[in-house]
Design brief:
about 375 residues; alpha/beta; Malonyl-Coenzyme A Acyl Carrier Protein, domain 2; Alpha-Beta Plaits; 2 domains; five-stranded mixed beta sheet; four-stranded parallel beta sheet; about 15% strand; globular
């Protein structure tokens, strides 16, 4: 089984969209998405410096746009039942362009869940960009209300670390698997953690983020997104979609959007997504642009699974070869079976990176 994953905040680097603009149509598409989202994606993806693109309200739409650009470059235009594609597609073109005929599942880390929702056909590209722009703004506004932050915890046993965080009043905001965990809370609580590390922890690394994402401190952002979500056009997923809440498949578009809203103030359980990938029998993983973080975790958490990160268009040829291995025969466009047992058959049968050593790269938003 082949799966697609999408990274979270912190994966962006200055100028990382520049090589993608060399592909036909990408500049026009990003121009349109910029108009839809109210953010100049081309400027921020090609010219802006590290500080500018670290801004939560900028980084989040930039990451979703990059992920969708790379997915479109890999799979082609959306299939006929997507809101982005009003014209019917032939079975032959659908097989070439439709992720539902190739992917066994998809998932994203934090804001990457929005990218995954668009790839799965739950949201149109425009709806995804509108939603993520408002998400970033709302989370930045919530973060400004108190001095909060996040810190990556390197080493230690997960249960012991979580218990220690609970005693300090901190939230395990990201549980990423492969021994990676991110704590979030007030500045005072994080200072207490630095002074009193859990047993076995080698380092506590403060992250350059605006606030305590995926905690109760983000409650104001949840209220904002709940109001927006009532008018958001959605469809049921055409690819099995795993949620950060519990790592399990979600069957309806309405529930996926509800979870996207609630996830802003709840921990990211990427470890549980990895557990489900393993249960499904995943054998290969492609990470959408800007790739590298989640495939790095997978190499440690899912040994034996082939991984490929889309960093620049130079990675597309290898990715297309991998997709071709898993493409189902072109016999029509069928909806995926949602659920672990059904998804196990696979196509042949039917989420902040922190600037620390690569072995400890840790998504945190």
């Amino acid at each position: 089984m082949l799966v697609l994953v999408a990274p979270g905040q912190g994966a962006q680097k200055p100028g990382f969209l520049s090589p993608w603009l060399d592909l036909p149509g990408v500049a026009d598409r990003l121009g349109w998405w910029s108009a839809v989202s109210g953010l100049d994606l081309i400027h921020y993806g090609t010219e802006a410096d590290e500080e500018a693109i670290r801004d939560t309200a900028v980084a989040q739409p930039l990451l979703v746009a990059a992920g969708l650009v790379s997915a479109l470059a890999l799979f082609g235009e959306p299939a006929s039942n997507s809101p982005d594609s009003p014209e019917p597609a032939s079975p032959e073109s659908a097989a070439a362009a439709d992720p539902a005929r190739v992917l066994g599942a998809c998932a994203g880390h934090s804001v990457g869940e929005i990218t995954a929702a668009a790839v799965a056909g739950v949201l149109s590209h425009e709806a995804a960009l509108v939603f993520v722009r408002r998400r970033g703004l709302a989370m930045a506004e919530a973060a400004a209300q108190a001095e909060t932050g996040m810190a990556a915890i390197l080493g230690g046993e997960q249960d012991d670390v979580v218990a220690h965080l609970t005693r300090l009043g901190l939230t395990p905001a990201n549980v990423n698997g492969a021994g990676q965990l991110v704590a979030a809370g007030t500045a005072e609580q994080l200072a207490a953690l630095a002074a009193d590390k859990p047993e076995g922890v080698r380092r506590v690394v403060p992250l350059k983020v605006a606030g305590a994402f995926h905690t109760g401190h983000m409650a104001p952002a949840v209220a904002t997104l709940e109001a927006l979500a009532t008018g958001l056009p959605v469809a049921d997923p055409r690819v099995t979609y795993l949620s950060n809440r519990d790592g399990r498949p979600v069957a309806t578009g309405a529930e996926i959007v509800q979870r996207l809203v609630a996830q802003v103030s709840n921990p990211v359980r990427w470890d549980l997504c990895l557990d489900t990938f393993q249960e499904l029998g995943v054998t290969a993983m492609i990470e959408a642009a800007p790739g590298g973080t989640l495939t790095g975790i997978a190499k440690r958490a899912l040994p034996g699974v082939r991984t490929l990160a889309l960093k620049t268009p130079d990675d597309l040829a290898a990715a297309r070869e991998l997709v071709a291995e898993y493409a189902a025969p072109a016999v029509g466009v069928a909806a995926p079976a949602v659920g672990v047992a059904a998804a196990t058959a696979g196509p042949s049968a039917a989420g902040l990176t922190v600037d620390i050593p690569p072995a400890a790269d840790s998504p945190a938003e």
